Predict the 3D structure of the following.
Amino acid sequence: MQDRKLPAPPDLASAVAAFLGVNLLWVFFVIWVLYGIVPVMLLAFFINHMIDRLEQRLG
């Protein structure tokens, strides 16, 4: 068998970010319909806080 170079795998980071963004939108919408805007805002602030903590820890 010949040694063949495999093509580089595609960068899926942008696809994953778009997928998470779309899913987050519908989850926020469902929570908004069921419980109102306050829990959505609290969840958004919590997610933002956790992202900031992760950024500080990694960077």
In short: The mean pLDDT is 93. The CA atoms of residues 50 and 56 lie 10 Å apart.
